[in-house]
From TrEMBL, chains A, B:
GO MF term list: ATP binding; phosphoribosylformylglycinamidine synthase activity
Species assigned in the record: Sphingomicrobium lutaoense
Family annotation (PANTHER family): PHOSPHORIBOSYLFORMYLGLYCINAMIDINE SYNTHASE SUBUNIT PURS (PTHR34696:SF1)
Protein name according to UniProt: Phosphoribosylformylglycinamidine synthase subunit PurS
Gene giving rise to this polypeptide: purS
Family label: Belongs to the PurS family.
Keywords recorded for this protein, A-Z: ATP-binding, Cytoplasm, Ligase, Nucleotide-binding, Purine biosynthesis
Function per UniProt: Part of the phosphoribosylformylglycinamidine synthase complex involved in the purines biosynthetic pathway. Catalyzes the ATP-dependent conversion of formylglycinamide ribonucleotide (FGAR) and glutamine to yield formylglycinamidine ribonucleotide (FGAM) and glutamate. The FGAM synthase complex is composed of three subunits. PurQ produces an ammonia molecule by converting glutamine to glutamate. PurL transfers the ammonia molecule to FGAR to form FGAM in an ATP-dependent manner.
Signal sequence residues: none
Top enzyme class: ligase
Length: 77, 77
């Protein structure tokens, strides 16, 4: 069983990585970009019997900094 | 218009970040994890008229290292 966790910064939190990507894209001539937000995706191969609650606990304890980040869990069979 | 680009390492490419996360999860007592792969997600706010081809060019020129990474583009209206 697989789980995919997508972690993104909460709105209003400054995203220097996104700003740097935005600036670089403009430098390469891509003018149609208004904003860029960068985040993480973590793919977990889980043993049988692992549940979404387990993944949620992993997110709260390690994978995401819940003060400044949102996380979304997608269970993939 | 928004685009979401998910960038993951190709199979067979060593993922030290994933290994470190896996090791940390086990240290926290999460035993049901068999493998962990870490990647990036980049959300782009695009001006009207920007197309998926533009985003593909951004991926090939900057966002993804196509030698070791795969990228997937999702256009979100």
């Amino acid at each position: 069983m697989k789980a995919r966790v997508t972690i993104t910064l909460k709105n209003g939190v400054l995203d220097p990585q996104g700003k740097a990507i935005h600036h670089a894209l403009e430098g390469l001539g891509f003018s149609g970009v208004e904003d860029v937000r960068a985040g993480k995706v973590i793919e977990l191969d889980l043993a049988e019997g692992a549940s979404e609650d387990d993944v949620d606990a992993m997110c709260r304890k390690l994978l995401a900094n819940t003060v400044i980040e949102n996380y979304a869990i997608e269970m993939v069979d």
